[in-house]
UniProtKB/TrEMBL annotation, chains A, B:
<dbReference type="InterPro" id="IPR037509">
    <property type="entry name" value="ThiC"/>
</dbReference>
<keyword id="KW-0456">Lyase</keyword>
<feature type="binding site">
    <location>
        <position position="472"/>
    </location>
    <ligand>
        <name>[4Fe-4S] cluster</name>
    </ligand>
</feature>
<feature type="binding site">
    <location>
        <position position="159"/>
    </location>
    <ligand>
        <name>substrate</name>
    </ligand>
</feature>
<keyword id="KW-0004">4Fe-4S</keyword>
<comment type="function">
    <text>Catalyzes the synthesis of the hydroxymethylpyrimidine phosphate (HMP-P) moiety of thiamine from aminoimidazole ribotide (AIR) in a radical S-adenosyl-L-methionine (SAM)-dependent reaction.</text>
</comment>
<feature type="binding site">
    <location>
        <position position="475"/>
    </location>
    <ligand>
        <name>[4Fe-4S] cluster</name>
    </ligand>
</feature>
<keyword id="KW-0411">Iron-sulfur</keyword>
<feature type="binding site">
    <location>
        <begin position="285"/>
        <end position="288"/>
    </location>
    <ligand>
        <name>substrate</name>
    </ligand>
</feature>
<dbReference type="Pfam" id="PF13667">
    <property type="entry name" value="ThiC-associated"/>
</dbReference>
<feature type="binding site">
    <location>
        <position position="324"/>
    </location>
    <ligand>
        <name>substrate</name>
    </ligand>
</feature>
<comment type="pathway">
    <text>Cofactor biosynthesis; thiamine diphosphate biosynthesis.</text>
</comment>
<protein>
    <recommendedName>
        <fullName>Phosphomethylpyrimidine synthase</fullName>
        <ecNumber>4.1.99.17</ecNumber>
    </recommendedName>
</protein>
<dbReference type="InterPro" id="IPR038521">
    <property type="entry name" value="ThiC/Bza_core_dom"/>
</dbReference>
<feature type="binding site">
    <location>
        <position position="351"/>
    </location>
    <ligand>
        <name>substrate</name>
    </ligand>
</feature>
<comment type="similarity">
    <text>Belongs to the ThiC family.</text>
</comment>
<dbReference type="Pfam" id="PF01964">
    <property type="entry name" value="ThiC_Rad_SAM"/>
</dbReference>
């Protein structure tokens, strides 16, 4: 069975959730990272667990300060302790990584419902799930259900990318019910406010939108401040032009007015707003490649350099920063992307969409991109933005959200293993041991998706007796290698000793 | 629309199939590699297209010779010319790679129905699909249907892993209806013949089974000749012991009788049989790791060295060889696997199962392993054995076969792109161009799975008018980046020229 447990920190109100899987046969339980939150149903708002921590700090100096500020002061906040317990690392590592800008802890002071988490290459690889309405599909209740569904399956953050009507109300419902940090792209709502015409966008309309969203509790915001006027012509020769929504909007604005991007020219003012709420920047890659042909091109790399410049400006304001990345990249160009981002953006956490490693499989882009995501995370990307099977085709529904989250949790965990994250392999070992010992129920309960694993097994062998059988329908009873191997095990140990004692000379040369 | 076309070679009866996708808007058609065969329905046996080539050679010397033999003589056979056209390479490259042992062209002289294909790291990465009955599931018709289904979606070879009753009849139906090479693991049938008891296995029973299968037309056979007695004790400390069915059977035999593996001691005799029919060896990795914990361990690597030794013996008999590989391997250990295989097995083609990059996601192992498969293929693996969502849980059904084949075709194509295979990217470019130009029908027809791509799009926008719309339900009409980007395109070109002429000095410094 899987159940939620809490580990208490240095104070009563630091209670870190884990999913504990109890195992049979005297095997010790396994504790897994848990993003599902308090799970109140129906959704009526989560308890504000961080409120006392925020209030206590606010009293110190009459205003809010960011986690980056405290880390730089050498202070370990309750949030930092929380994530240290969650990650199984020392709290000083969390503080030091945040202080160096290599990790962020997104947590708007107006989103006290969130359970703290950290994004940085020294920590577990995280997964973001995008949800949100579009003008032609979905409603508020449906989006809150997707949020709960996404965090149930392991989404570490959720971005609300709503466009169309009811943006404010949708976001309010999402933030109040979210145990994970919420990200947004404010330009979408700003554009709605000016009637959908990019040319009517102004800094003032944008600024007011950012303040509105920060007041609601949005934890990080994508800002396409690196789409500079002089970079736009670099996209003319591309196969797929500009594929970031925000990027295309800002490019249209710059080009039509022949003015520099107002997000760039007003960036310092934006930093001041972000600092007040501890909103983190997710510096958007508005010129990311949308096809294999456009990967790692001049436009993308020019913008990346600018994002590095903006990172330093944000850090001067104690504002936390991560950097968004592609997109569509063939496997052999993935490492270069990470290396350049690390160098040019001063090791600020990288947050990538996929990347998709081929363009030819619409309807399977959770897979084309899980390949790229696993690799880019192995090379150091801190958070992966999921891609669902509906990418390029339509708005994801509930099933698509689950498929996307699971594909990306697989990519993230594969990268944790490859990076040698302490404790990551214990999960694999526990499941494989259960598999070898035919503890079927333990296998299902340890699986990333117990429901589907159990139902696939039961398709051919539904009887409860099959749950203790030493085979499954794949090979049948006579050809189960694990059964044969297991029965050999005792014999082998005896033979092994005998064999070593005899000098190991049984080897016969090949007859030819 | 997609339709089958044939390209004729130097003689009338060399007709190489392609799937040609016709595009709208004056765009040139795209030709894709096609494995689907003549597609006769109901299955009543395919035409023996290679029969005249085989007969002509047989007349030369009163017996059969292998493709490796001819390649070493400097001869380009019709089969080699066929695959050269199929791959878009020079026939001499095919001949030279086969002659060097770096590629194989599996084609039993008794399977004249097969369309020639090549397996080697200089060619397109191939995908194998496993089908076959087990004692508790499936029948002959169902397996033939899976064969046709697998090749429709792109399987380059199919292995019939049937166990239980009707093995001979199942295989006969599969070989006679297969346009792709068929592989088997003869030990399964040999074991059935001795009543299922590994200890009763004999060289004679095995040899007779191999001859029976070679007579039927099996193109390559997995032989676990590298599981030596002295390696078996190396598996005692493993988390998952021996997970290869054939490996566990041979280990049981060796250990119980305390004799060396008869496949190893009789390997030269086996080569003589294989040479008579031009059956290729797929040297089995009976000690492959079955969990992350066991990857790249002593047992696996000891066996790999022996497979290298056996490769040279097979080559002395002009028999074609490929080498099977793992299994379960974390990402950071994948490259080492390929590098050692290349070195120790003299660059014979590598043929790997996955590898799965984590153990924790049963029901999603087509994804855990597509990640590893794409990477291992990028590093030089020539053929990937698919894994379906049912891996570890049950026998795959029709849907699982499709899910496995598509995940692996994605991995293979991603690797072709990463390796820079000539012509691979043309497919991606054509699809991305169609996407950018809102040619929805062209996108669907170019997709690896047109049916699913179309149905996902139509879930939210079923009207035929949506097939020409400049947006989809994902972002809706106002937020379609491609629409905005496309409308910018002409303007950008004009602005770009103006901008360059003005000296590119529009850049404004950040206001801070």
């Amino acid at each position: 069975m899987k159940r939620k447990v809490h580990v208490q920190g240095s104070r009563d109100d630091i209670r870190v959730p884990f999913a504990e899987v109890e195992l049979s046969g005297g095997n010790p339980p396994v504790r897994l990272y848990d993003t599902s939150g308090p799970l109140n149903d129906p959704p009526t708002g989560l308890p504000p667990l961080r409120a006392p921590w925020i209030a206590a700090r606010s009293g110190d100096h009459g205003g809010e300060r960011t986690q980056l500020y405290y880390a730089r002061q050498g202070i370990i906040t309750p949030e930092m302790e929380f994530v240290a317990i969650r990650e199984g690392v020392d709290p000083s590592l969390v503080r030091d990584e945040i202080a160096a800008g290599r990790a962020i802890l997104p947590n708007n002071v107006n989103h006290p419902e969130s359970e703290p988490m950290v994004i940085g290459s020294r920590f577990l690889v995280k997964v973001n799930a995008n949800i949100g309405t579009s003008a032609v599909s979905s409603g508020v209740e449906e989006e809150v259900a997707k949020l709960t569904w996404a965090t149930k399956w392991g989404a570490d953050t959720v971005m609300d990318l709503s466009t169309g009507k009811h943006i404010h109300a949708t976001r309010e419902a999402i933030v109040r019910n979210s145990p994970v940090p919420i990200g947004t792209v404010p330009i979408y709502q700003a554009l709605e406010k000016v009637g959908g015409d990019p040319l009517k966008l102004t800094w003032e309309a944008y600024r007011d939108t950012v303040i509105e969203q920060a007041e609601q509790g949005v934890d990080y915001m994508t800002v396409h401040a690196g789409v500079l006027l002089r970079y736009v012509p670099m996209t003319v020769g591309r196969v797929t032009g500009i594929v970031s929504r925000g990027g295309s909007i800002m490019a249209a604005w710059c080009l039509a007015r022949h003015e520099e991007n107002f997000l760039y020219t007003h960036f310092a003012e934006l930093c001041e707003i972000f600092a007040r709420y501890d909103v983190a920047f997710s510096l958007g890659d508005g010129l990311r490649p949308g096809s294999i042909a456009d990967a790692n091109d001049e436009a993308q790399l020019a913008e990346l350099r600018t994002l590095g410049e903006l990172t330093k400006v944000a850090w001067e304001h104690d504002v936390q920063v991560m950097i968004e990345g592609p997109g569509h990249v063939p496997m052999h160009k993935i490492k270069e992307n990470v290396d350049l981002q690390m160098e040019w953006c001063h090791e600020a956490p990288f947050y990538t969409l996929g990347p998709l490693t081929t363009d030819v499989a619409p309807a399977y882009d959770h897979i084309t991109s899980a390949i790229g995501a696993a690799m880019i995370a192995m090379y150091g990307t801190a958070m992966l933005c999921y891609v669902t099977p509906k990418e390029h085709l339509g708005l994801p529904n509930r099933d698509d959200v689950k498929a996307g989250v699971i594909a990306y949790k697989i990519a993230a965990h594969a990268a944790d293993l490859a990076k040698g994250h302490p404790g990551a392999q214990a999960w694999d070992d526990a499941l494989s041991k259960a598999r070898f010992e035919f503890r079927w129920e333990d296998q299902f309960n340890l699986a990333m998706d117990p429901d589907t694993a159990r139902s696939y097994h039961d398709e051919t062998l539904p009887a409860s007796a099959a749950k203790t059988a030493h085979f499954c329908s794949m090979c049948g009873p006579k050809f189960c290698s694990m059964k044969i191997s297991q029965s050999l095990s005792l014999e082998m140990q005896a033979k092994s000793e005998e064999f070593v004692a005899s000098g190991g000379q049984v080897y016969l040369p090949v007859v030819s």
